[in-house]
């Protein structure tokens, strides 16, 4: 498993947890997914 994938999965799980607290699970997952992709793109090595 690549490091970028782990970052995305972690953000999705954190987003789902926050969504459970606020009773909006699916939007929390989607926001976590978006944040995960943004963080992954920040840590992406340049060729």
Automatic annotation (TrEMBL):
<keyword id="KW-1133">Transmembrane helix</keyword>
<feature type="transmembrane region" description="Helical">
    <location>
        <begin position="6"/>
        <end position="39"/>
    </location>
</feature>
<protein>
    <recommendedName>
        <fullName>Molecular chaperone DnaJ</fullName>
    </recommendedName>
</protein>
<keyword id="KW-0472">Membrane</keyword>
<keyword id="KW-0812">Transmembrane</keyword>
């Amino acid at each position: 498993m690549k490091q970028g994938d782990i970052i995305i999965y972690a953000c999705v799980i954190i987003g789902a947890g926050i969504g459970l607290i606020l009773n909006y699970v699916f939007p929390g997952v989607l926001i976590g997914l978006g944040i995960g992709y943004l963080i992954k793109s920040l840590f992406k090595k340049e060729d």
